[in-house]
Amino acid sequence: MTVVPIRGEYITLGQFLKITDIISSGGEAKLYLAEAKILVNGEPDNRRGRKLYPNDTVKVGGVGEFRVTAEQN
Fold first, then answer.
1. Percentage of residues in the chain having pLDDT higher than 70
2. Per-residue confidence (pLDDT) for residue 38, from 0 to 100
3. Which domain CATH number covers 15?
4. Cα–Cα distance, 19 to 43 (Å, whole number)
5. CA 15 to chain centroid
6. Domain assignment of residue 12, given as a range
7. What is the 3-state secondary structure (H, E, C) of 15-30?
8. pLDDT per residue over 24-43, tens digit each?
9. Where are the beta strands (DSSP E) in the chain?
């Protein structure tokens, strides 16, 4: 499982896909989410604005599994 540190309280699923290099730009998020199988905390979700908080897990079909963590200062 890959750890993804974030700044702030949360990050959106669209931003998450970009910072993990799954997509190259935010504009690709809507199309990617329409086709990809994504589980957030074990539940299917394809909303670009879905808020991800520290300790959430994201499984992206064909890519891998990730855990969101708070960035340590």
1. 99
2. 96
3. 3.10.290.10
4. 21
5. 7
6. 2-70
7. HHHHHCCCCCCHHHHH
8. 987 888 899 999 999 999 99
9. 2-6, 11-12, 38-40, 43-44, 51-52, 57-60, 64-70
